[in-house]
Design a protein that fits this description.
By secondary structure, this protein is of the alpha+beta class. It is 17% helix and 31% strand. It has a domain at 46-127: q64v53_bacfr protein fold (Single Sheet).
């Protein structure tokens, strides 16, 4: 402890700590940051929601896919499917490169089109209210 100019007691440790420069390390939050999003962000959004319904067979199915990025910079393809109005199942695939995720996305899209899945119209699928959903 030291005596200040006004006769009061000051804490030398705090005074020394407060004399640091504006930026005290290379990792400081005060340092200017360069943003480079070309490698970390998906170039184009990939979302798909399709349905397959056949009232004669009591069939009401949905299939949804989405490509997103994980916190670690990996591409992630998330698929969900099941009966319309139910939570269904979910599967996630992780890829080092976005191109690999897009390839699987397109392959699965072709498979679903061949099996009769079609884009949902307005007021159907994800846009339905709880009372409108097929159970």
């Amino acid at each position: 402890m030291a005596t200040g100019a006004d006769g009061g007691v000051t804490n030398t440790f705090i005074t020394i700590m407060n004399r640091s420069v504006a930026t005290d390390s290379k990792l400081s939050l005060d340092a200017a940051r360069r943003i480079s999003d070309s490698a970390e962000m998906i170039m184009q959004p990939y979302h798909l929601y399709v349905e397959r319904t056949d009232p004669t067979r009591n069939m009401a199915r949905y299939y949804a896919m989405e490509i997103s990025m994980t916190l670690f910079g990996e591409a992630c393809l998330t698929r969900s499917w099941g009966r319309i109005g139910k939570s269904g199942q979910r599967m996630t695939h992780h890829f080092k490169r976005e191109e690999e995720a897009v390839d699987l996305f397109l392959d699965l899209l072709l498979q679903k089109r061949e099996r009769g899945y079609r884009p949902a119209g307005p007021g159907t699928g994800e846009n339905r209210t709880r009372k409108q959903k097929i159970v």
